[in-house]
Amino acid sequence: METTGGLDIQAKKKTEYHTPAEQTRPGLVFTPAVDIYETDKEITLLADMPGVKAEDINIDLKDNTLTIMGQVESPKKKEEVDIFMEYRIGNYFRKFTLSEMIDQGKIEAGIKDGVLKLVLPKIEKAAPRKITVTID
Amino acid sequence: MFIKRISGWPSTNWESPFEEVERMRRQLALLGERVKNGRSNEQFSGVYPLCNITEDPNNYYLRAELPGLKPEDLTISVTGDSFSISGERKIKVEGADVKYHRKEREAGKFSRIINLPGQIDVEKVEARSVQGVLTVNLPKSGSTKPRQIAIKCA
Fold first, then answer.
1. Does residue A107 belong to any structural domain of this protein?
2. Is the pLDDT confidence value at B119 over 60?
3. For position A56, which CATH number holds?
4. For residue B134, what are the contacts with CB-CB under 8 A and spacing of at least 6?
5. Is residue A127 one of the residues assigned to a domain?
6. Domain range for residue A45?
7. Which domains does chain B have, with CATH numbers?
8. How far is A61 from chain B (nearest CA, A)?
9. Total domains, chain A
10. Do B109 and A88 lie within an 8 Å CB cutoff?
11. pLDDT tens for residues A14-33?
């Protein structure tokens, strides 16, 4: 099912990410807009990261902290001169804390048309094992 | 000098004690303007999609970030000096069994017309979309291109 509600889309300025730590790479950093939804089995994350190539995405999951990073190269050629600028170009960075245990080995990630899709399968809860006590 | 010190006003003008405040207000306004305009001269129309236009001697380049849009979701047309884009951004809505934690990505229809800074060659316009970034190549028409003029000696 695809819906848009027929409403007009609103233009939004990119939100700049203010790093608490000093950056090692120069340039601007933005927080991508995301959708996160959860089912019994998995958590899915969709992030708008236009201009990011598959090889320039870095996903890290450590101690329940999920970090997504995307590097963007300016599409401008050397001889191009700016004449009208409405949006700025920069890298993407965002951090999330996950409350569920994730099966690290089964994480799936893909990017298509500038949208990152991340599927994080939850660790299946161990089925309770019945232990029968035998009496000698 | 003595009066100024005991009264505590930082201003040298005893007659108008708010002069210093006024001066600060002016400087802050100036600073605000400089931050607003000076930084990468960014403009904001608030109309989706936001576009950047650049140029080189032969072309104008219009770029827009349209993540998740397929070429068939977009309609682009050009006239001699204007560019128009319209379409719809569709986002798949998951079923009732899913629980949303964040829903920041927006869907909807859009339509925008941009006046170009000069005349373009309508026949040679090319558009492509890579990683959700649309780039439209708008070749300048003969009259818009800079022409170098040789200076003749008398």
1. yes
2. yes
3. 2.60.40.790
4. B49, B63, B64, B65, B66, B69, B74, B127, B128
5. no
6. 27-75+85-121
7. 2-38 (no CATH), 51-93+107-139 (2.60.40.790)
8. 18
9. 1
10. no
11. 888 876 555 666 678 899 99
* pLDDT at residue number B68: 93
Six token digits for residue A56: 């320039």
The overall longest dimension of chain B from CA atoms, in Å, is: 85
pLDDT of A112 > 90? The answer is: yes
Q: Let me know if residue A117 belongs to a domain.
A: yes
- Distance, CA of A115 to chain centre: 9
Contacts of B41 in chain A (CB under 8 A): 82, 85
ipTM score of the complex? 0.80
For residue A113, being part of any structural domain is answered with yes
- Mean pLDDT throughout B4-30? 67
Verdict on whether the full-model pTM lies above 0.90:
no
Q: CA separation (Å) from A20 to A17, B60, B75, B96?
A: 9, 39, 42, 38
Nearest to A83 among B42, B53, B106 (CB): B53
